[in-house]
Design goal:
The chain is α/β, with parallel strands linked by helices. The radius of gyration is 21 Å and the shape is globular. The protein starts with 6 loop residues before the first helix and ends in a 14-residue tail after the last strand. The C terminus is likely disordered.
Length: 263
């Protein structure tokens, strides 16, 4: 006698099988790869606490740098106060340190692409908490030179921008291009970084911006030289305001005055 299985029965059986599998082989934490992940979560309780602590660190609403309590005045911190900036505001997931930095490096440099969704959702949460979100009309990613694309399987800024655009229901418009590769930013001073990216970006041909309000996405901000240069191109092309969204903001300088951070 043939026995028919309803969809509900199949789903119930699959759920039961998943529960047994998780009981016998509990999912591992995506960060330490050792401790068991908490029920329904991606990280063990210890790593989840560390991540939550880092994500809660105070940041400047304009440049995204780490700040101390009461340091921000008129939306500016000691890092960006008094500087002419093309970016009107920055949302970030957290600082480039310890747990968050480890997750980011695993994602970008060690092909742990399964971490992309988690990082993308954290960035969505950060942007949704920004006072300027309702102003944003479209999402733009900081581009990389075609030569650099050959070195990696994906470009993090593009992936993050596409995810943000979809979740925020805004168009993702890849209107910037990098016309000059330049040196890697690692180890350069702030002035050297500014010079290194000057003239490195351009608008795609045929693009016109009429008082557009754009969200510019990158993976890590160190001195802000790259983001500011991209924002300058967009503003010169007619954008009324440019905001930024980054996963992490890195330390600015070491004791010797040289910039720390991954990019």
């Amino acid at each position: 006698m043939a026995v028919g299985l309803t969809r509900g029965t199949v789903r119930l059986a699959q759920a039961a099988g998943g529960a047994v599998r998780d009981l016998l082989f509990p999912p591992r934490c995506l960060l330490c790869l050792d401790g068991p992940a908490s029920h329904g979560e991606s990280f063990c309780s210890a790593c989840a606490d560390n991540i939550a602590d880092e994500r809660s660190r105070l940041a400047c609403p304009t440049c995204g740098s780490d700040v101390a309590k009461y340091e921000v005045r008129l939306e500016r911190c000691a890092t960006c106060r008094g500087r002419s900036m093309k970016i009107a505001g920055t949302a970030r997931v957290g600082p480039y340190r310890l747990a968050l930095a480890h997750i980011f490096r695993a994602y970008k440099f060690h092909d742990r692409e399964e971490l992309g969704l988690t990082l993308g959702e954290w960035l969505v949460d950060s942007v949704r908490g920004a006072a300027w979100l309702d102003c944003v009309e479209a999402v733009v990613s900081v581009p990389t030179h075609w030569r650099h694309r050959l070195d990696r399987r994906f470009h993090a800024a593009d992936v993050l921008a596409a995810h943000l655009a979809k979740r925020l229901q805004r168009p993702h418009v890849p209107i910037l291009r990098r016309v000059r590769a330049g040196r890697h930013q690692l180890g350069l001073s702030h002035a050297q970084r500014v010079a290194n990216v000057r003239g490195a970006f351009a608008l795609e041909s045929g693009v016109e911006l009429h008082n557009a309000r754009l969200l510019l996405v990158d993976d890590v901000r160190t001195t802000g030289a790259t983001i500011e240069e991209c924002a300058k191109v967009l503003r010169r092309a007619g954008a009324a305001e440019v905001y930024a969204a980054v996963l992490l903001s890195a330390s600015h300088t070491s004791a010797g005055g040289r910039v720390l951070g991954p990019i």
